[in-house]
Fold:
Amino acid sequence: MSKIILQAENINKFFHNPLPFHVLKEINFTITRGEFVSVIGKSGCGKSTLLYILSTMDTDFQGTLKIDGTNISGKTENELALIRNEKIGFVFQFHYLLNEFSVLKNVMLPALKLGKYSEEEIEHRAIEKLKIFGIEKHALKKANQISGGEKQRVAIARALINDPLIIMGDEPSGNLDKHNSQIVFEIFQRLAKEFHQTLLIVTHDPEFSAGTDRVMEMDDGRIIRQ
Amino acid sequence: MKFRLNWEIAYSLLLARWKQTLVAAIGVTFSITMFIALLGFMTGLNDLLDGLILNRTPHIKFFNEIKPSKVQPIDLSEKLKSSFNFIESVKPNTERVEIYNVSAIMSALSKDKRVLGIAPKITTQVFYNVGAIDITGVINGIEVEQENKLFFFSDYVVQGNYIDLKNIPNSIILGKAAADKMLTKVGDVVQVTSAKGERIQLKVVGFFQSGLQDLDKVQSYASIATTQKLLGQTSSYITDVQVKLKDLNLAPELAKYYGSLFNVDTEDLQTVNSQFETGTRVRTLISYTVGITLLIVAGFGIYNILNMMIYEKMDSIAILKATGFSGKDVNNIFITISLSIGVFGGVFGLLFGYLISKLIDQIPFVTSALPTISTYPVNYNPMYYFIGVTFAIITTYFAGFFPARKASKIDPVIIIRGK
Structure:
C-alpha cells in the first residue's frame, strides 16, 4: 500500500508579470496511495499555484512531476487532458457545475468523455456516487436548482466518477457556511477511510487540516513542514 | 461516442441561449432567403431576355452574302501577274443568293454529332399590297416543324395555329404590328408582291409577336414551298441554313470549319450578339455580390453571438477542460454550435427562398413586348440552392472558427483562480 502516486522533484516556478517573481522554490515531495494530505499556508505563499501545477493544468514550471510513474513534461495538451480525465478528480472552491445539464449529467460528463463504460453503466455509477452523499434524489434536477452545499457534494461526486488516483481540492469548503463545510469535511474523511481514496486538499482552515493524515505547510514558496 | 458527447454539450449550450441562437439563425435564414429569391429572379429575367435572342437565333447561319468578287478577271492574267492592277468602282454582280448544293450541305451537317438540328430558311423582301399603298416587309420561308423544334416558333404565334402554315397551302403568319397596320384578321387574304414583281394571294392563318416591335412591323412567315412559289424558284432554292448546336460554345469554331469546307459565308452567335453575354454576366455578378454580402453580415452576427456566449460560458469551458476535455473538444463544441446555426438557418433559408420565388412567380407581369409570359420569370435552378447552402455553411464555419479557437485556448487556471 505504499505505491507512489505523485512525485514532485525540484519544482520551481516563476511569475514574469508584472515583475519576475520566484513563486515556488525547490519543491520536493511524494504522495503515496491512500494518503489524506492537506496543504496549508498563508495566502500568497504559493499553495494554490502548486496545486495547479500538480493538476497538470499549469505546465509552465521547471522540475519534474511524475503522476502514477509517468513524467508529464513534454506531453501534448491532449495527453494531459486525458491524464486529468482519467487519473485526477477536482473539487474547487466554487462548484463549477454546468447549469444547462441535470445533476446526474454533470456527474456523468467526465466518464462520458473517458468512454470506458457504456452510457447505462456510467449512469448507474453516477447514481451510486450520488448515493454516497445522499443526494441521489436531486439527480434529475438542473444544477442551478439545488442548494450551495448540495452543489459542492455533486462536484465531489463528479470528481469521483472516473475512480481517480487522486482527488485534488482547492479550498473545497472555502465558499460554504460552517454546517456545509463540516459536511464536506466529513465526506473527505469518509472517502479516505472507507474508500482509501488519495486526497490532496489545499486549505487555510486549521480545523480541517488537523483531521488529515499529513499536513504540508508552505511559506514563501517553500515547504517548511511535511 | 466522443462526437456525440460534444454534440450533446453544444446542443445544450445552444438551447440555454435559444433566443440568441434564434436571432443568429434568422440572420442566416434571411440572407439565404434573399440570396435564393434574388438570384432566382435575376437569372429568371436573364434567361428570359437571353431567350429572346438565343431561342430565335441560330448558333450558326450559312448564307451567301452579296458582295463583290475578291478575285477580278485581270488578276487571273498570266501577263499582268507581276504588276499592280487597279480597278475602280467594283460592284457586286448578279450573284445568286441561294446556297449552292444545299442538300449536300444539310446531309453533311445532319451527320455531325455536335449538331442538335438544322432548319433551312428563305428570306426575301416583299411588299404587302394594302389598298393603294405598298408596305415593305420580309417573308421568312421556313420548314415549320423544324423551326418550331429549334426556335420555339409556336411560342410567338399569338393568334391562330402555327401548324396551319404547313397544312394550308399559300398561307402566311403576319407580324402583329404589320397586321394591325393592314387591318387584317385571321382568315383574311393579303396580296404580296415579290421584289421581282411576282404577285401572290396569301391566306392569313395567324399572327406572330416576337417582342421586338420593329421586327413585328416587317416580318412574316410562310412555308418554304409557298415562298419558293412566290419567288418562282425550284424546290432546291434555300438562302439560309440555320444550325443549332448541342454546345453553344463550339459555334465560332464550327462556323469557321464548315464555312471553308462548303465555301459559304457563316455567322456564329457569339460574333453577332456579343453584347448580350456582357449584360447577363453583370446582372449575375450583382446578384451574387448582394447575396454574399448578406451572408457575410449574417456571419458577423454569428461571430458576435458566439463571442458573447464564450464570455458567458467561460466557467463551463474551464471546468470542461479541468475535467479532461481537450482544447480540441472545446473547439469542436463551438464549431458545432456555429455550424448548427448555419445548417438550421440555411435550410429554412432555402425553404423561404423557394416560397418567395414561388410568390414572385405569381406576380402578374404582362407586357406586349413579351407575349409568352404572364408573370415574372423565376429560375428554380437547384444550383443556386446548392450554392446558397454551401455559402451558409462556409460563412458560419468561419464565423465560428475564431471564437472556437479562442475558447479552446482558454486557460482554466486563470478562470478558476480568478474566482
